[in-house]
Amino acid sequence: MPELVADGPITVLFLCSENAAHSQIAEAFLHRKGGNRFVVGSAGTTPAVVLNPLAMAALADFGVTWRGQPKPIEAVIDQAWDLVIALDDRPGVDCPTLPGRPLYAHWRIPGPVVDGNSMGFTEVVTDLSRRIDLLVALRPEQLRAAVLDQRARAGDDVRVAQPA
Question: Which among 41, 47, 57, 153 is least surrounded, fewest beta carbons within 10 Å?
Answer without folding.
Answer: 153
